[in-house]
Amino acid sequence: MGLPSGTxxxxxxxxxxxxSGDHWTAKNLGWNGTLAPGASVSxxxxxxxxxxxxxxxxxxxxxxxxxxxxTTRPPxxxxxxxxxxxxxx
Length: 89
Hints:
Layout: E1 8-13, E2 16-20, E3 23-27, E4 40-41, E5 44-48, E6 63-64
Antiparallel strand pairs: 1-5, 2-3, 4-6
Protein name: CBM2 domain-containing protein
Keywords: Carbohydrate metabolism, Glycosidase, Hydrolase, Polysaccharide degradation, Signal
InterPro entries: CBD2, CBM2/CBM3_carb-bd_dom_sf, CBM2_carb-bd_dom_sf, CBM2_CS
C-alpha cells in the first residue's frame, strides 16, 4: 500500500509489515498463510505522520481463498480490523 510521504506504520498485527520508501507491504505470518477454501484472512496496523487515512492507497484489501464445491459448512466470520486513525502528535 502507498502512504503519504512522512507517514509510517508504527505497529501491526496478524502480518509482518515492511517498507521501501512510502510503499508498505504486509505479508502473512507462519500461522495464517494457508487458507481453506472459502476462508479469509485480515490484518491491521496503526500509523502516524502527516497523512490521513483517505490518502492511503492499496492494491489489495483482503485475501480470500476460492470457494470449494465440497464445503459443507459456511466459513467462520472474521472480525474486521479496527479502522486506522491518525495518532495524535
